[in-house]
Amino acid sequence: MGWREKEAAKLAGKKVLMVGAGGIGCELLKNIVLAGFRDIHVIDLDTIDVSNLNRQFLFRREHVGKSKAEVATAAGLRMAPDAEVKIVFDHDSIFSEKFNYEFFKQFAFVLNALDNKAARNHVNRMCMATRVPLIDGGTAGYLGQVHTMIRGSTECYECVLKDENKKTFPGCTIRNTPSEHIHCTVWSKHVFNQLFGELDIDDDVSPDMDDEEANEKKKNGEEEGMETEEDKKEEEKEEESVKEKEKPKNTRVMAEESGYDAEKIFNKLFVDDIHYLLLMTNLWKERRPPVPQPFGELANDNPGTSAVRTAAQMDPLQRVWSPAENGEEFRKAVESLRVRKAATSDGILTWDKDNEDAMRFVAACANIRAVIFGIQPKSLFEIKSMAGNIIPAIATTNAIIAGIMTVDALMIAGGKMDKVVSSILLTAPNWKGMAVIPQEHAKPNPSCYTCSSKREVTVRVNVERMTVETLRDKVLISSLGVGAPDVMEATTNKVIVSSEEGETDGLMDDTLSTHGLAMGGRLLVEDFDTGDEMRVVVLQAAAFDEFTFEIVSDEKPEKKEEEEKE
């Protein structure tokens, strides 16, 4: 066997996980298949939107409405028809319970092609817990970076606080399935342009009425070939019913015909369009469906908020408006912008974050849409910060970053981890003529909640049923030997168990999920009696009852140091 055959066999034997099949993911899957990797698992929850087609080149118009992971997998298999390639996919959230400790442990390395900070944090934590190398790539316009993270050798994704102000378009989620407030903010800027700016087809904010996703709901499932004749007839009736429904008018046309009636525009955006979006039932199989918000039924306070500080006691810029206040801000902003628009010679307004009417309009729109999709609303100050820092995705940047990630993957597969470096892509060559700058990996942050060398325990529980009291008494005290536990949730720094008597008694009956714990969640635990610290990684097990738990692993610093020397 020659060296080529040996290298090919080495790559073929490496099992690879790729999370994300969007802009970077499409380029990356093509690369790793053509490079010789033969056992690949692809995960992505998103479906293909027409707006993806200009930069996600594995997708075509006939794929709109289908699973990104499914279509990308099929394209990857076609790229190596003569080779024994195994590519499997999951159209699912990376937070799903099935992607647990044992699932991650089976891979040689993980490729992160995500645009969502929460998901990237989660994958980072799972890779650090399982000691699986993670290659993470990201882009922001013409800028990009690749970081390979190896537990104990390099810093992890959470070792350094990321700049929250640099935001990119997260793809097709903007119009149909927002999951973060920034998605709602981007959408709201498009609404402004649709109503008051220069018309641009890319700024359309309504669900696509001719989109296959709306009219061919069954195409996204794997059960299409198993339908009975009765099922098909029922589906045809349902599709005819959808087609017979009156299609909502274009947002600009409707606004002009109504004389820019704020209440009518509001109900068009947040009631009519949402009802139509709900017809795309395949979108809501794994997601919380949106809830329409009629103008006359807006609540006076936000769900889950505290009334400890009154509105008068808070800075108006920092206070989060209630749904009713957002509705009133929307009404006033529409009226002001209508007058301004009528006073211009060309009838066109340009969005400016420093214009109060424009900014309040976008903030109100974004918050109402956030409430509809179950996302926590934000203050005017926070939205202004986000709205001024939105960067479009660039296909060539995605391709370059995917190429660098592939080189790193080949290095890891070849056992050359010591040669892997971080890479930064610049917008133009530096004084040395280099556009891609290699950098030595930074060492792990000793204070990092995720990867620092503390004792780390991975425990499987049912976060929906186990209470804080059970966690304290059964898991920490009885099983792990923590005498007087002080427990803090790592993401929010919220104390949920205190060794000080009576301080957290009111939280004892709360379930763990009440405090934000889910698959991959982290707790920071300190024993007040001894000063010992540990990290507890929480894995979800829906089949467990309130009192059942399983210690998956218990790694002490001394043990980890010995392993690293070996």
UniProtKB/TrEMBL annotation:
Renumbered to this chain, the Basic and acidic residues biased-composition regions fall at: 230-249
What biological processes does GO assign it? Answer: protein sumoylation
Domain annotation Ubiquitin/SUMO-activating enzyme ubiquitin-like: ranges: 459-543
Residues the record lists as binding ATP: 20-25, 44, 52-55, 68, 93-94, 115-120
Query: Which parts of the sequence bind Zn(2+)?
Result: 156, 159, 448, 451
According to UniProt, this protein's pathway is: Protein modification; protein sumoylation
Record's GO cellular component, any one?
cytoplasm
Alphabetical keyword list: ATP-binding, Metal-binding, Nucleotide-binding, Ubl conjugation pathway, Zinc
**PANTHER family cross-referenced by the UniProt entry:** SUMO-ACTIVATING ENZYME SUBUNIT 2 (PTHR10953:SF5), UBIQUITIN-ACTIVATING ENZYME E1 (PTHR10953)
Q: What is this protein called?
A: SUMO-activating enzyme subunit
Cite the source lineage. Answer: Eukaryota, Metazoa, Ecdysozoa, Nematoda, Chromadorea
